[in-house]
Amino acid sequence: MLLFGRIRIVIYIWPEGSPAFKSLRAHSRYTFEYLFLETHMKILQLISRSCLILSSVLVLVSCINGTLQADEVFKTWGFNGAVDGWKPLAQVETTAGDTTLTVKGTGNDPHFIAPVEGPSGWIKVSIRAKFSGQFNSQLFWTTTKQPGTSEGLSVRFKMIGKGDRFTDIDVFLKTEHPITQLRFDPHSAPMTMELDSITMAATDAPPADPATDPAGLKVASGFKVELLYSVPAADQGSWVSMTVDDEGRLITCDQYGKLYRVTPPAIGSTEKTQVEPIEIEIGEAQGLLYAFDSLYVVVNRGKKFASGVYRVRDTDGDDQFDSLETLKLLDGGGEHGPHSIIKSPDGKSLYVVCGNSTKLPDDIKRYRLPKNWDEDQLLPRQPCSNNHNTGVLAPGGFVCNMDPDGKNWTLVAAGFRNPFDIAFNDVGELFTYDADMEMDVGTPWYRPTRVNHVVSGGEYGWRYGTGKWPDYSPDSLPAVAEIGQGSPTGILFGTRLKFPMMYQRALFVCDWTYGRLYAVHFEAEGASYSSHLEEFITGTPMPLTDLVANPKDGAMYITIGGRRTQSGLYRVTYSGGELQTKLTDNNRSIQLRKLRRRLEQYHGLQDASAVAVAWPYLGHVDRHIRYAARIAVEHQDLEGWREKAIKEPDTRAAIHGLLGLIRSGTEADQIAAVKRLSQLDVASMDDSVLIEWLRTVGVGLARSESTDIATRVVLREKAEGRFPTATDAGNHELTRLLVYLDSKSVVTDAMTIASASVTQEDLLFYGMALRVATEGWDSSLRKSYFENLNRAEEGAAVGDFIGGGHYQIYIQNMRKDAVALLNDKSKTALDAVINAEIASAIPGGSPTPRKFIKNWTVDELIPHVASLENGGRSFDAGKQLFRNAACIQCHRFANRGGILGPDITGSAKRYSMAVMLREIIDPSIQVSDQFENHVIITDEGKVLEGRILSESDNTVTLAVDPRQPESILQIPTVSIEAKKVSRTSLMPKGLLNTLTREEILDLLAYILSAGDSEHEVFK
Prior knowledge:
Elements: E1 2-4, E2 7-9, E3 11-15, H1 19-26, H2 34-38, H3 41-49, E4 57-61, E5 73-77, E6 87-90, E7 92-96, E8 101-105, E9 111-115, E10 121-130, E11 134-143, E12 154-160, E13 167-175, E14 179-185, E15 191-202, E16 218-219, E17 223-230, H4 233-236, E18 239-244, E19 250-254, E20 259-263, E21 274-277, E22 285-291, E23 294-299, E24 308-313, E25 323-329, E26 338-343, E27 350-354, E28 366-367, E29 397-402, E30 409-416, E31 422-424, E32 430-434, E33 449-454, E34 458-459, E35 481-484, E36 488-493, H5 501-504, E37 507-511, E38 516-525, E39 528-538, E40 544-550, E41 555-560, E42 568-574, H6 587-600, H7 610-614, H8 623-634, H9 642-647, H10 651-664, H11 667-678, H12 687-703, H13 709-721, H14 728-740, H15 746-755, H16 760-770, H17 779-798, H18 804-820, H19 824-829, H20 831-834, H21 858-865, H22 875-884, H23 887-890, E43 892-893, E44 896-897, H24 907-910, H25 913-921, E45 934-938, E46 943-951, E47 955-959, E48 968-972, E49 976-981, H26 997-1008
Helix pairs in contact: 6-8, 8-10, 10-11, 10-12, 11-12, 11-13, 12-14, 14-16, 15-16, 15-17, 16-17, 17-18, 21-25, 22-26
């Protein structure tokens, strides 16, 4: 090694043709710079003296290129009687004193800049300043290759002043190229501070916080979990996706950053996990797959890269990726954008899954699900209680197949909300784990997180707001497992794991919210499956993001992280005895799956034999067979089966044939199909067939409003003759249809059921359906209707019913719709019940003002958090403080509270106490795109802030107070001068400042317990 000033030279010599020569010459980081050598004659002279004479050599020069040793200062501003190069840029006045620089911010975005010549890599900026209060600060920088400032080249941080004393703040930033300028935004409001100095030094990456200790995890018997790597958040972010290459190495991706290659140690080895960045310009991936000698990267747009499917390859065999190709751009982003990618069972193609904020590509070559979907809402629906996904129409989330080059895409299935991952079992059946709509808990349209068997042409019934299709709808398919509230992330079948057979055939699904890894054990049932659940691994915090099977060692590898939480890599192995499989496959199920797949061959294709093959199975006893047969028929030319559907004599086969005709035909076909449905023998139908008939009639009427009056009268009479029936599902569908058909008796019958109901779901269903009924009311029934609404809303408020503020908002909107149908006389007569005072589950805050205690910091409280393990905290105090600190005003917890922020019931499962405190004390650090606000500036100079509900060519609808859904503004698009995402959280600062340390610990204990008064933290 030779040292010349600040340049470190390392010389390596290899013979041409050697493996090292070929590998390193191709690696851009080691490319030999001849010009560099020509300007450094001493080096050439030393090489000539070395007496190493080879026919051809490769000489590698490793130059620091200006990079300094760690902690070496390269720039200091001392402000000794001068501004020292700092220039006010906007809303700032600077005054130089003898030893300090006084900075006065005059607006909401003050900032000033200074030039600097510095290295690339990690830099520590040390600021010594005197000021009062807490500042919301930000540093921007520019580099030799990036001359403009941007959010991507910035870091936010908090500064807490000490009044008359100087405080020291260290801020870490990382640059890819030598830094050229520093910009300081000291606060987002007018302020004054004295700067004593600003120092910049090269540094190592900030140390990683440890990921969750596996010793605290609850793990299935016989299994071992080891923590392989705690991800340094400042340098490598928070990992959300993972795959395995052909060498058994892992490839991971930071949610908002780049790719990494991970070489885990051998099982039982004491070696460290090796992590290296992949130096190629792609990242923000929520889906990764190594296949076909390529790395497939599915980007879910964060800030830097466009959403889509990309392919990365090593083209010269040096074991380094060097080629990036865009295969398909996708129109979607946020947390419901493009997600995972997997290989097909036959090894010839790929499958991609996307959430419901992703538009279906418009150049799909084949649609296995016919492109005849619609919303199919018989009665008017309400949007989500916080307007999430309002206006997003079918098909919703989807699964597509594509060839390895990304050229030919096929729609496989749709109607999902937000599935993150997909997986094939050992016999080639596809599954996914779909997300719930947590705001809908306690409503009849709530669908918990659920595992779906994803079949060809499958429709799974997601529609926005209250419009989600019930599981029993014959035009959709049901879940094979309902898991409950949570946030689905990675899934994996255990086929390639060295686990007991029962786990090799299980589906492992990750719940990010509650830190649970489930094993879903399947049993063959007809052409599909049934299942039961096992909690395989649970922990706190354990925000699970992805998992893979490594065929090199048969182990399961798991990542935690996401939304900038502390990330870690774990390995799961088995060391117990062999266990007997719990999954039994029977010959009948095997034959039915073969039959289903035979029918699925006609999906997306026209074939002269399709109708003849599929038609006999429209009335099959197995739901998946009936469904596959109908989809096969829908893909065929209508001329070949239109008359067949109208004349089909078998009741069940006729219903499904007519459903296909309604979905595929013209308005005339829909009218004819509904008329034929009115002629079927409804009185003798069993309950399951009745529900299919009711839904099919509903779809027909929803798609065509031209059905003749005589047909409607017959339909109404037949439906009235079956109401009420023996099942809740039957009564719900009968009510929908009869309200639509203006039945004069449905209100009386439905109100009898509703008033006797003991479930909140029934109360809410009948409240929703009857709110638009126009016939059959009298004053007594009207009064009972509003009393039922009041009972339901009061139940949510006092905790008898779950759902909290979301539940109440739905009821309040029902009440408005029902009142809108009343005349003035009825409104006056019913005023007392319509405007009855109802308790609210969304209080305005503490009932009495609390005095200020202090500005708490994370560092002050963290040392005391460990004491929670000793127990002895007060559940009642924590619960009251949750209200007093106004947490309940915005967040739902234990099924109560507001809708402004996310549900935090399971927050302890995904956040460490340090992160939780950071989120409370410093809420603007990380804001989910589901809860972000926008700032809109109009041409009149008005600054408006709120949540955008919808946008059109003409207007933007802005909710300015999510606690009051009616508080919305319609802003003409032409009057908008600027619109940007707010970088400030809706969550107010200083929520803990009126609490003592002991009260804060009781509050944290309450959150940690998820509302369980028997939790060990209270013992």
